[in-house]
Amino acid sequence: MGLVWIVQKTGNPRFPIRIAIEQEGRTLFAVRAQDAWPGQKGNVFCIRDGTPPDERDLFETVERIPVISFDRFGKSLRITLDRPLKKRCEFLILQKAYKNRPGSYEQIFFKTQTAQREHRSRSRLSLRPVKTSFTVVVDTAEKYPWKFPKAQIEKRKLPAGDYALIHEDTILAVVERKTFQNLLTDFSRIAMLHQVLRELETLPHAALVIEADYGDFLNPERLEHSYKPAHCYRVLSELQAMHPHLPIIFARTRKEANLWTYGFFRAVYRKSLEERASQETELTAEPVVPYVAELRLEQRILTALRDNEAVTATTNSSPVGSAVSGVSFTTLQEVLTDVDETSLKRILQRLKKQGRIDSMGRGNVRRWFLITEKPADPSE
């Protein structure tokens, strides 16, 4: 089951709102806040919530929203909610030293996307530069390897790819290098190329870097009649479709491909250092595992209708066809337990306006249907 954003009224005049992120009844993160969402000032001061489970039953739940993504970056927890507005936010968690005595105390700020955009550090990169050297391993098959200034270079056989960023014998990132001619040659053995890329995808932060522009594969003069441009763009499209998690970078020249890979390795190395440092500080009740929802709420509703055999074949005479079953609102609530009533009603109406679903009846007898075809125009 996915993560849920829960907002409750506590009745406490100083911190009247409790905000929690839960998964299958487990509270991953919870705070007491002064407001359910930051207003014009852009941030809300919060404190940790330690309310026992039996006392939470006294709170009034006002929102239950599915979470699209949840991740930790440094001192921040970044969250995206499954709704059209007020959906991106972060909790900045700081440790401040006491001025007049030893020790420190915690400060938590609930910030929105607007506050992040208007902050004076909005142009500052998330990954801070590091001066420590890193290790790049070059595969033994590389005859004329790229150069990586200020990096320690080792040469040995790699399990996949031509260049790898290594730390403590662990691969952090890997790049498969292809020249224009290399890739054209691989077009003649496409099955083998797919196998190579599948192996590459099993490694962290993998990328395919090509020393050519995308347009080069559409230029008959560069192709020299080896392949037609139409075939080339179909192959390149297939590569990305078959390997959706593998970035394919068209870097134009050898120099630019080298530079992209060098910058990529440096960024991944900085990211790994910050992740290891952040593990020493506990921001949540459990270690944060990056989370991305498999389906958005709209898709989950459509799937629920389909799974309940609510597909309605529309006809010229009826916008909802001959189906008489459908799915009630109560049934949808039972299936989508992580969604509050208001949000569910809002999305059902939006899907209806889009012509993707329809309904019959009113009140408790109302049934929702999935429309698979547009109604025929009576005037035709």
Describe the structure.
The chain has 380 residues and is an alpha+beta fold. It has 3 domains: 4-118, no CATH class; 135-278, 3-Layer(aba) Sandwich (Rossmann fold); 297-371, Winged helix-like DNA-binding domain superfamily/Winged helix DNA-binding domain (Arc Repressor Mutant, subunit A, Orthogonal Bundle), CATH 1.10.10. It is 27% helix and 30% strand. The protein contains 10 helices and 19 strands. It has helices at residues 53-56, 113-118, 180-187, 190-201, 220-223, 229-242, 254-278, 297-307, 329-335, 341-353; strands spanning 4-9, 17-23, 26-33, 43-48, 60-73, 76-81, 88-97, 104-112, 135-138, 152-155, 163-167, 170-179, 206-211, 248-250, 291-292, 311-312, 327-328, 357-360, 367-371. Residues 310-323 and 373-380 have low confidence and may be disordered.
Task: Write a compact overview of the structure shown.
The chain has 380 residues and is α+β, with helices and mostly antiparallel strands. The chain has helices spanning 53-56, 113-118, 180-187, 190-201, 220-223, 229-242, 254-278, 297-307, 329-335, 341-353, and strands at 4-9, 17-23, 26-33, 43-48, 60-73, 76-81, 88-97, 104-112, 135-138, 152-155, 163-167, 170-179, 206-211, 248-250, 291-292, 311-312, 327-328, 357-360, 367-371.
Tell me how many strands there are.
Answer: 19
Which structural class do you get from the secondary structure elements? alpha+beta
What gyration radius follows from the Cα positions, in whole Å? 27 Å
The gross shape turns out to be flat
Helix content: 25-40%
Quickly give the CATH architecture of the largest domain: 3-Layer(aba) Sandwich
Number of helical regions: 10
The ordered string of helix (H) and strand (E) elements is EEEEHEEEEHEEEEHHEHHEHEHEEHHEE
In CATH, what is the class of the largest domain? Alpha Beta
As laid out across the biggest beta sheet, the strand order is 1-2-3-4-8-7-6-5
Taking pLDDT < 50 over at least 5 consecutive residues as the criterion, the unreliable ranges are 310-323, 373-380
CA-CA gap between termini: 47 Å
Number of domains: 3
Strand content: 25-35%
| Mean pLDDT score | 86
CATH topology value of the largest domain: Rossmann fold
Major sheet summary line: 8 strands, antiparallel, barrel
